[in-house]
User: Fold this.
Amino acid sequence: MTEATLYLFKAILDVISLVILITFLFRLLKVDYYNPLVQGMLKFADIFTSLIRSIFRPLFGIDLASLITAVALQAFCFYLISLDDAILFSFGIMISWSLFSVLLMVLTIVWWGLVAGIVISWVARGNPHPAFSLLMQMSDQICKPFRSFLPPVAGLDFSPILAFILLNFLWAAAFGLSIEAGLPMHLSMGG
Assistant:
């Protein structure tokens, strides 16, 4: 296979991993299951996760099947790249890179979901579009634990500030650990 073909396959697998991780967050944040966008993405992700889901059941509300599938897809992406001799193949290294890549992707999705929810709350609050309501739900669920520390004051919600501080700390820590593990950031979608 040519280098372009390998990177095309990696791009396709990265997009599939991204959709699977977004559905993982849908389940974790308990967004509206009947939202048509959620339904469509869950049906697509279930094509790849249904076999693993029959083996691994959710644990404490965490969809293990989605995480395992995303890690396996990322490991396969790194394996494809190793076929081009761009990196050396080692099973342990591929798994650790895949774990870091998935962690960085999840943190990036959460960060952008929070940004989108905040922007929508400023410019399109009350808009019935399924995408807007989904992003608002995700943003609200992300900020919910922080509201107990910092409740709204005079109608202003400052909990996203705490959420961003924690997300940036977690992302920087995961990024630093992934660099130490040797993850080539130009090959990771989360970097």
Q: What stands out?
A: Residues 3-183 form one domain. The first helix runs from residue 3 to 29. The helical segments are 3-29, 36-55, 64-83, 91-123, 130-147, 159-180. The mean pLDDT is 86.
